């Protein structure tokens, strides 16, 4: 296969790859094949620790070196390419790394990696070419390093916006908490446990992730319920109860978005999480599979979590009591199949519950 | 420059490009240079309209053709590469397009573009090579098409998550509206007008975008104020007023996030949007440039919008009255420089205000 083909085959993989480690492995293999060297390694600058560390290196685990040490350190500092045909004669070469790895570096080509603003963010090294490095190798390595920088930056940008998006959703859930002080982290637990149940039901990974985020917002509609009802300590009067029962519809209206699957699922969960398998729930009295799968999952998770969690008033139920209740409510409040799956994975449920207890 | 170099130079540009039209132009130039043809065009399938349309084509504007017409239609349907050395003899060729463009297609190579799930999403065409297409050209074009598909898909994913993120923030602002029924779209107008003022102040584009989103959430803290105070129609008692004055702090606590610049700015706006230039505001009585620039902008925009907008009680002020008030409050409530910029761009402020009036 000629070099052009090698590169073109790698390009779409690089562009689509969403995992940093995989990405760097693909890039390093690319560099290895194109420059025809024995090994490649990519060092990234850790500004806080003043170190350089490899996010990928052929044949070795992570290497960490002080910021200004070795050839990589020299290149990171100067932002200039460095080539040596005899590493042990280079005044910058750090022999210690070879000693630790049990490897013999003969020759070495190191190029800096720049972000789009021109700041050095790392160093790409190619080690042990059987012949000497040619000027075309250096050119090639520089171009691969540029491609690597673009791909890494792109991926980090994507990760950043995804992270931000999750944060917004958590804040949305938290906003609802201001009105309805559920036990701390209630909504986070609902998210993680609902995702677990969805996984055990065999739903695909993307849908499980959506459920994790969407389910946290199921009670957001309580924002629209007046304090005098939401915070009343005694029993609600019938007319007050009618108003309270509107929180699923308010949540639906707030969340629904015709262009976003995430918000559609979040909206349907908000709308239907108080429906019951036997049709005696609210707001519409839907029953069995008329209720969306999402809401049937969240209803089980939400109820169980509420039972076993410490509240301001009243003791939490013991685990046994809560499990018995869930059993007893099969086909009454809950989808029996999902209850079975839920109870069948109680160890994992409790693991999540413990982790996010407060 | 050899082909390998052409490709490697294009790769980081392609990877970093965030604008679809620019991306396709880069890709088409790449294909043009590597296959050595006169023109390239990329057709995308519009499922809803059952059409194929060019998102880029050398030398022409958008072309739209029915889904099954022409060589592009044939390739889209079959998912197979098609080559002809004499287009006018091909039974699939659509002569009409040449007629409209005043162009003479001699030979043509068309390859399908697949998404990562293997579905055809478009067709990449290379037109008029001076010699015949070689098998290596076909291979190259297929690989470029794969690269194009990956880049397009990647970009669309990024756009989608960005869009979702914006939606979450808007929903967060809307959630606050449930408690404090501001005039409709108040928070959206605050966002767009604040961005306008920031632009006129010469802030960079990224910061202006952040302000657009961050400012919409300035009143989110009202979620934490009891209804009896928030919705009281008469004057607040001193103790009620003390509680009301906590909404900036509640907003800050809800929004602040140490890893996100957006939420940091949103938090500081929520915290300081009732501070005054003369130090007589709340919650801390900060003055002049002790108050963040963001909050000084939003305070002006928020006050002005409230004055001129129809409310349940009381008439809105006329534009003249509101402008006079802003003038009069310079150096009292507001940063005088920002007021000057705000009033100096009144035509654009009103344009946004009209657009999002209801």
From TrEMBL, chains A, B:
It comes from Thermodesulfovibrio aggregans. This is GAF domain-containing protein. Transmembrane segments: none annotated. Coiled coil: none annotated. CDD domains: HDc, PDC1_HK_sensor. InterPro entries: Cyclic_di-GMP/3'3'-cGAMP_PDE, GAF, GAF-like_dom_sf, HD/PDEase_dom, HD_GYP_dom. SUPFAM superfamilies: GAF domain-like (SSF55781), HD-domain/PDEase-like (SSF109604). SMART domains: GAF (SM00065), HDc (SM00471). Residues 161-358 form the HD-GYP domain. Pfam families: GAF, HD_5.
């Amino acid at each position: 296969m000629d070099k052009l083909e090698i590169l073109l085959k790698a390009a779409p993989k690089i562009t689509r790859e969403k995992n940093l480690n995989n990405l760097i492995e693909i890039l390093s293999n690319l560099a290895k094949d194109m420059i025809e060297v024995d090994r490649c390694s990519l060092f990234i600058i850790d500004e806080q620790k003043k170190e350089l560390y490899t996010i990928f290196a052929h044949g070795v685990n992570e290497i960490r070196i002080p910021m200004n040490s070795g050839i990589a350190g020299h290149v990171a500092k100067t932002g200039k390419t460095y080539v040596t045909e005899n590493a042990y004669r280079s005044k910058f070469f750090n022999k210690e790394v070879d000693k630790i790895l049990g490897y013999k570096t003969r020759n070495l080509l190191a190029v800096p990696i720049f972000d789009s603003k021109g700041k050095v963010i790392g160093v790409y090294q190619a080690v042990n070419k059987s012949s000497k490095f040619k000027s075309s190798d250096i050119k090639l390595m520089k171009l691969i390093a540029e491609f690597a920088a673009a791909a890494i930056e792109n991926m980090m940008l994507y990760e950043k916006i995804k992270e931000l998006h999750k944060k917004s959703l958590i804040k949305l859930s938290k906003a609802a908490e201001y009105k309805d002080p559920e036990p701390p982290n209630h909504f986070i637990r609902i998210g993680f446990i609902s995702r677990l149940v969805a996984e055990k039901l065999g739903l695909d990974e993307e849908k499980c992730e959506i459920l994790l985020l969407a389910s946290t917002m199921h009670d957001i509609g309580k924002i629209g319920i007046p304090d005098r009802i939401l915070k009343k300590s005694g029993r609600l009067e019938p007319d007050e109860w009618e108003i309270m029962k509107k929180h699923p519809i308010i949540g639906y209206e707030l969340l629904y978005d015709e262009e976003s699957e995430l918000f559609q699922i979040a909206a349907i969960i908000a709308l239907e999480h108080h429906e019951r398998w036997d049709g005696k729930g609210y707001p519409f009295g839907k029953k069995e599979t008329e209720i969306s799968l999402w809401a049937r999952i969240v209803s089980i998770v939400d109820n169980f979590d509420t039972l076993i969690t410490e509240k301001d008033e009243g003791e939490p139920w013991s685990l046994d009591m809560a499990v018995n209740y869930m059993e007893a409510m099969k086909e009454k409040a809950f989808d029996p199949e999902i209850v079975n799956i839920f109870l069948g994975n109680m160890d994992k449920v409790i693991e999540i519950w413990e982790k996010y207890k407060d």
